[in-house]
What we know:
- By secondary structure, the chain is of the alpha+beta class.
- Helices cover 33% and strands 22% of the residues.
- The protein has a 15-stranded antiparallel β-sheet that branches. A 3-stranded antiparallel β-sheet has the order 26-27-28. It has a two-stranded antiparallel ribbon with strand order 16-17.
- α4 crosses α14 (572-595) and α12 (518-530) packs antiparallel against α13.
Amino acid sequence: MRLIEDYALIGDLHTAALIGRDGSIDWCCFPRFDSDACFAALLGDPENGRWRLAPAEPAVRSTRRYRDGTLILESVVETASGTIRTIDFMPPRTRAPDIIRIVEGLDGEVAMRSELRIRFDYGRIVPWVRRLDGARVAIAGPDALCFRAPVEVRGEAMATVADFVVRAGERVSFALTWFPSHQRLPPGPADPEAALAQTESYWLDWGAACTHHGDRHEAVRESLLILKALTYAPTGGIVAAPSTSLPEVIGGPRNWDYRFCWLRDATLTLSAMLDCGYREEARAWRGWLLRAVAGDAADLQIMYGLAGERRLDERELEWLTGFEGSRPVRVGNAAHRQLQLDVYGEVMDAAYRASVHGVRADADEWSLLTTLLAWLEDGWRRPDAGIWEVRGPERHFTHSKVMAWVAFDRGVRFNEEFGLPAPVERWRRIRDEIRGEVLGRSWSVERQAFVQSYGSTELDASLLLLPLVGFIPADDPRMVSTVAAIRRDLTRDGLVLRYMPREGGPLDGLDAGEGVFLPCSFWLVSVLAMQGRGDEARELFERLLDIRNDVGLLSEEYDPVGNRQLGNVPQAFTHLALVNAALALEVGSAASSRRA
Length: 596
C-alpha cells in the first residue's frame, strides 16, 4: 500500500518532482508545474512512467533527509552487501531543467538498478528513443528528454535500464534533461558535482535571509523552503501544490488539480514570507498579480495559471486508475469560474502587509486595488461559493462577508497610514455596514456561535479566521463560544474539519467524507494562542508537527483513524498556516511574559 507521506519533493523553481521512499520518481511535469507529466506512476502504475534508482537487493534499513537548509534529498539505504547514499536534486533553473541523481558508495559494494520509464502526456504516450553521443533521447510531440549515464544502459520492456555496482568511495551520477523536441540537439551535459554545489549554495543563501529566529525556527525554516519551492520564478506566481488528484479520501471522488495560483494561497504565503523577512517575493508577487488580474474587476478569478492564464478547463484522464484507486484523475480546475468574495480581502490584506513591511504600493497597484474595491462596494452583497469552493448552491458565507470587511478595512488603513487617495468615508460606511450585518445575521443563538452562512446552524472552520484578520478580538465572548463549539462539534480526534459533510446534502454536491483539514487545525493553534491558552495551543501545534512526514512535508488533509496524510502534497496552504501558527505562539508567549 502506498502512502502520500512516502513522497519527498525536489524542485527548481519552475517545476517539481515527487520521489518515493523506494527511490522512484513517480511524478514530474516538464517544463512547468502545470505541464503534462512525463512520470505519472503516482496516479497509476509504473507503466504510466517513473524513474526508479535503487539497490537491486532488498533494503535492510533506509533513512532520508534534506541536506540541512536545502531541498537536496539524501537517502541512505543499507543492504546485506553494503550501504549507499542517493543524492537527488534539481538545480535552480538557469538553463534547461535537470534532474540529477548521484549514487555514493558508503560501505561494501552494492548492486544497483536504474529503470527509466518515460511516458509523456500523463502516462499515455510511449516516446521514440534514440542514441545520441552516448546519451539516450526520448521524443514525443513537443517534449524531449535526454538521459545521460556513465554506465552501460539498454532498452528493456519499453524502458531504459542500467545495472551497475557501486563500491565504497565511488560516486555515479545520472542526469535527465528536458528540452523542446523541435531543437535539433539536446542541451550540453551538466556537471553533476558543480550543479550540486551550486544548488546547495542557492538554498543556503536564500535561507540565510530569514529574519525568524524563534523557538520553532527549524519547523518554520523547513516550511518556508517548501513555500519557496512552490514559487514559479519567471513570474512570481505561487502554486498551491505541485500535484493533482491526490485524494481527500482514499477511493473517493474529491481529487483536484492544485498546480495553479490561488489568490488566497498566494497572498497568505506572501504574508508568511514577509513576516520572516522575504521582501523580494513580495515584489515578484505584486508584478504577477498586476498582470494576472488586469482587466474588469468583476472578472477577478480565484485562481490563475502560473503566468496569469485564465482558462484552466477541467478534464478527466480516464486511462489513469488514480492513487490507490481514487478516481477520477483530473487536470485543470473548474473552480476557476466561481465567485469567491474572500479573495478581494486577501488581495487587499496582502498588499497592505507588503506596504507595512516596506514594499509600498505604487500608483499602478493602488489603481488596481481601488478598482477592485469599487466593484466590491456592491459586489459584497452577492452570495458566492465560499472559501471551500463548494460545487453546490451559492450562499451568503460568513467568511466571505468578513473578508469583504477586510478589503474595505485595509483600504481605509492605506489612506490613514500611507496617505493614498481614496473615498475613505464611503469605505468606512461600507465597512461598518458589513460588520453590523455579519454580527447580526451570522450569530446563532441556538448554537451560541458564529455559523457558516446567514440563516444556517452549521459550523465552519473558516470562522477561526475572524480574529486572525482583526474582525473581532479572540477573547470576545462570542469568539470564545464559537471556538468551544468548533472544538466540541467540528473536530475528529481533536483535529478540525472544514465543515460537517452531509451525505447527498446541498453544500458541495459530492459524497460525504474527507479527512481533517490541516490548515484549520493550525488556525485553531493561532486562536488559542491569541486567547492566552498557550499550553493548549502548544500541545496541538506539536501534535500537528508530528503529522509531518520524515522530511517535513504536509499535505492538505489527514485521516486520524488511518493515521495517514490525504490530498495534494506538499500543500502551500498547510505550510503557510504552520508558519503563521508558530509566529502566533511566539507572540502569545511574549505577551504572557509581559503579563507575568
